[in-house]
Amino acid sequence: MIVVKSAEDFTKRAYELGFSISALSRAVGYNRSTLSHIVQGLNGISPKKAKLVTEMLGTEFSELFIIVEKRKG
What we know:
Elements: E1 2-4, H1 7-16, H2 21-28, H3 32-39, H4 47-56, H5 61-64, E2 65-67
Antiparallel strand pairs: 1-2
Helix pairs in contact: 2-3
């Protein structure tokens, strides 16, 4: 499962490039609550969307995301 490494760093990077979480969610095809849950670590993100987010934010995957073992249950 792919999760956000640091909510603070993710949000800071988005803001630096002029994206609110709402604007970034629209740009990548999520609703705001879905992206908010991803940033907070409540949900994972698909590889395809993670790649799109990194491209939108002009950064590398490893700066924003980590791959963790999928939670059971």
